[in-house]
Amino acid sequence: MSFNNNLDQLYRSVIMDHYKKPRNKGSLDGDSVTIDMNNPTCGDRIHLTLKINDGIVEDAKFDGEGCSISMSSASMMTEVIKGKKQEEALELAQIFSNMMLGQDYTDKYDLGDVEALQGVSKFPARIKCATLAWKAMEKGVSEQK
């Protein structure tokens, strides 16, 4: 088996792990930002709640329905933005967008499991699935600036 096949298999395993055991699933009570978005072309939908205090994303939770790419991306996104400044969360969204477009992206941040989604860029029909949660987060963080 070649290195690329092993890497693809690892990435698939990471994506399926987040899909089957999502991190930060649920919603936040109290003073939080709520964003609902959907992808009408495939039926993915997300309900994202963010707790932002003093310019920091303190917590993030999501709920929704969708394919493994959409739901695992939401799980990964909530993990990577927690504790980040709003500007950093928006910068991470741009980095992710660049990754989905097959462009070079900075390694300024440790993207962790998010990097497992870079193969989605080879499947244009799935890019909207992967970016849905990120677009919701961008909207929520921008509204709180």
UniProtKB/TrEMBL annotation:
The record's similarity note reads: Belongs to the NifU family.
Name of this chain's protein:
Nitrogen fixation protein NifU
Q: Which GO terms describe its biological process?
A: iron-sulfur cluster assembly
SUPFAM superfamilies linked to this entry: SufE/NifU (SSF82649)
One Gene Ontology term of the molecular function aspect: iron-sulfur cluster binding
Its domain of life reads Bacteria
Instruction: Tell me where in this chain the NIF system FeS cluster assembly NifU N-terminal domain is found.
Output: 11-129
List the source organism.
Answer: Ureibacillus sinduriensis BLB-1 = JCM 15800
